[in-house]
Amino acid sequence: MTLKNRSKCSARFGFRTQLKATPSTCALCSRGCNVHVETFRGSIKRVRPRFHEKVNQYWMCDVGRFGFDDANERDGRLSVPLVRRGDGFVETTYEAGLADAAKTVKSAAAQLLALASPFLTNEEGKAFLDLCKTVGAAARFVAPATAGPDELLHTGDPCPNRRGLSELGLAPTSPAEAAALAADAKGVLLAGALAIDALETAALENGPSGSALLDDAKRPAVVFERRLVERPSVAVCIPALNEFEKAGTFTNVDGLVQAIRPSLAPPPGALSDREALERLRETIYGQAHAPAKGAH
Ligand code: SF4
């Protein structure tokens, strides 16, 4: 080995020793492989399999191993809510943004089309369910079609928590069903990162895009997403976290409840999806029980 190569080798080894490993669960299919997420200076550098006798033993697939680039992308990430003002959006505080969101959700009430992302944890799913119960709306999650499994690990189901959300009582809803339900809805709540991507999966198979339900300005929408969603109906956009920023649990395809742990810091100031959903429910409850103006 040349001296130049030795120094490269030593630099690479030094770099590896500085990686911080977080034990977690892969969120890119419903298998829930156990993994170590390794970060350096706030960015994911690699994901390695972590032994679990019943789930993945020593293995993981390339989808999980290399599917983290988007999670490192910070551009355009929301850290505070945005509310529509005329043709544009302005930043606001959580208190003001959730107050606007509460009015939209409450005025649609039972005719709210409430759709969770299939990437919500069990704990976030419970907060979403409680919120839906508060306004009397049916709780659903976007459930894209599954592909066939590979021969080893990948289940072909892109929803990491389909089983957990179903067991909580959220109704799995295909993008086409969501688009049809929108016709009778007076408002939309879309909760969690990648819910819109999940709605658009039908378009990949030449079906109608479920995300068209965000195109009718007469049906206002509250959307939790990582970045601003500039669609005609969006009235409030609330920051959402990606799967590497969350703490909670997923229930895998075999019913095993497994922890996901944060390996990346969320945008400064952004609440977790669970906390934002709980605060939205409290705001709705508070508005419903506020004393009437002039009452003593
Ligand atoms: S099989 Fe699924 S859970 Fe396992 S690494 Fe691949 S995408 Fe992730």
Could you characterize the architecture of this molecule?
This protein is an alpha/beta fold. 31% of the residues lie in helices and 22% in strands. The protein has a domain at 82-245 and 265-288: Rossmann fold, CATH 3.40.50. The strands form three sheets. Strands 5-4-11-10-9-6-7-8 form an eight-stranded mixed sheet. The longest helix has 16 residues, at 273-288. Iron/sulfur cluster binds at residues 26, 28-29, 31-33, 56, 60-61, 63-64, 153-154.
Give the biggest sheet: 8 strands, mixed
CATH architecture descriptor of the domain at 82-245 and 265-288: 3-Layer(aba) Sandwich
Helix content: 25-40%
* pLDDT < 50 stretches: none
The neighbouring-strand order within the major sheet is 5-4-11-10-9-6-7-8
First-last Cα distance: 85 Å
Short description:
This protein is α/β, with parallel strands linked by helices. It is built from 10 helices and 13 strands.
